[in-house]
Amino acid sequence: MNPLVSIVIPAFNNEDHIRETLRSVTAQTYENVEIIIADHSSTDGTAAAIDEFSADPRVRVLSPTPRGGGAPANWNRVTQEARGEYVKLVCGDDLLRPDCVAAQVEAAVAYPGCVMVAARRDIVDDAGEVVLGSRGLAGMRGVISAGVAVRETVRSGTNPFGEPACVLVRRHALLERGWDDTHSYMLDVASYMHVLDHGDVFCMEASLASFRVSAGQWSVRLMRSQATEAKRLYSELAASRPTDVSRGDVLRGSVLAHLNALARRAFYMKLKVRSPRAESAQGGTA
Q1: Is 72 exposed, middle or buried (0-12, 13-18, 19+ CB in 10 A)?
Q2: How many CB atoms lie within 10 A of CB 12?
Q3: Cα→Cα distances 283→189, 198, 200, 242, Å
């Protein structure tokens, strides 16, 4: 019998955290899962750490993903190997609550018109301490129509649905276009917008995952690139969904994208003072 859920893990230079990530994934209370892992030719001990979990019958470790292609190359590779009806991508330093998959599957089955189930998440630092609790979804709860979800995404100037560990997606909706490599700095949210071409989203009140942040993730170039890509994505969405996204929504979102980037800069600078040695990656080489 094929698994209902594929948990796919693109790893890259995650030696310090991949064991904790994999323990959180293998400890899920929901049992009908497969776990697919690909290391993106890491230069640290990530591959050896992954191998410690290879005896688990649910785990399938792929050969190393060749260097290059950035995060989209490894994200798409593990996703294309998925056999489940639903896919959850977990980066190599993020965490799932033990009941995360069970709760999201329950919602997905209860609301078959939804192609995506999103939960809130905690933001944790390099040591795993919560720095911001129960974040995300911009006030959206329950079944949210695709049009409203897209409009709220644009108007928020950020990614209200959070990182992929927060989200369960129907595989067919994701695989039609895969992870969007044309928006490398907004890889997840741009891809969610394509998924929403196929149905609605269910938004959960509970915080079911943890996203790890570190001072090493921030740079002036990253901040500017994210804001620029946000504006481009919003304009594309207004063109493709004119009944859902107005020019005013694009203007509002573009301004907020810049302000959110400045807020992230302040947050990461504060984090750097707390943990000056912290660094992290999102599962792909440049």
Answers
A1: buried
A2: 27
A3: 16, 27, 28, 34
Q: Which pLDDT tens digit goes with each residue over 169-228?
A: 999 999 999 999 898 889 999 999 999 999 999 999 999 999 998 755 555 566 678 888
Taken in order of first residue, the domains within the chain and their CATH numbers are 5-215 (3.90.550.10), 216-274 (no CATH)
Q: Which of 232, 233, 234, 212 is nearest to 279 (CA)?
A: 212
Cα torsion 21, 27, 32, 36 to 10°: value is 20
Single-letter code of the amino acid located at 154: V
Q: Where are the alpha helices (DSSP H) in the chain?
A: 18-26, 46-51, 70-80, 100-110, 146-156, 171-175, 187-195, 220-240, 247-274
Exposure string over 162-184, b if 16+ CB within 10 A, otherwise e:
bbbbbbbbbbebbbeeebbbebb
CA distance 9 to 94: 10
Q: What is the mean pLDDT of the chain?
A: 91
| Nearest of 236, 121, 230 to residue 186 by alpha carbon | 230
pTM over 0.85: yes
Residue pair 3/82 in contact (Cβ under 8 Å)? The answer is: no
